[in-house]
Amino acid sequence: MLIAVLLLLAGVAVLPFAADRFVVAATHISRSLGVSPILVGALLVGFGTSLPEMVVSGLAAARGEPDFAVANIVGSNVANLALVLGGAAIIAPVLAHKEIIRREGPLVLAATILYVGLLIDDRVQRWEGGVLLAALVGALYLLVRWSRMDMQQADQLAAPSVAIRPELTAALLTMMATVLAATALIEGAERLAEELEIKSAVIGVSLVAVGTSLPELATALAAIRRRAGDLVLGNVLGSNLFNVLAVGGVAGLLGPGAIDPDFAILLVIMLVLTALTGFLVISGNQLVRWEGFVLLASFIGFITVAAPALA
User: Which CATH homologous superfamily contains domain 38-158+198-310?
Assistant: First the structure.
């Protein structure tokens, strides 16, 4: 019990500070390199927070457990959309530029459709993993190209205003600290839940979903406080893109096999929630408080459905 509480306290103490410092560094990097904040959010936050999931899911798939990889991807993406964006919108409106709605949003939706379509036959095959990784390369190319176009149009390709190396180092270190703090928080919560004898299915679904999204949530809240709204969307869009394409691709290559047919409903929920979030953003070019509550309610509904489905 003591170890669980100490891990929880350590995670809670470090997570907000690390995420806040990461937002500062990411903002400085985007200005110095002449790229948009959403690209920095997508690449640094998206890849950084998805890397632990990629390692864990890849190893699980290699051991013949493709179900775990799918659960990890679906749970994390749903939590990113419903919990991270929903929580951020409740605190303050999450503004969305028209370019993001028109380009990056459909890109993530298309990647999600591709992932769900490949798994519709309840199997993960090696060639499908290759397709997902090839799609990732194409998506990254588009993100970089769009970002450069946006900054050129805004005449923001000036010489760096801050030293890039210290800020890049700070961004990488604080990103690692954010992930490690979230990991400590998850470990502490798991130990505490086991000692309190909470059902394993409920623990697994809720903690995997919330736990893997803690870095994104902490970064989003820090970005809201610093009025860096582009990083909030870049955070979520980048993470979800890496989850379905990178994590899904690596898991498919390392551990192809059959998955539980009950995952079909969870895959559909992820796809529907992705489309719903896009619709809410398009409706007013932002997410406001009531829409944040709608997303949070959707997350509760997901947990309600997922727990018995995976029991």
Answer: NCX, central ion-binding region (1.20.1420.30)
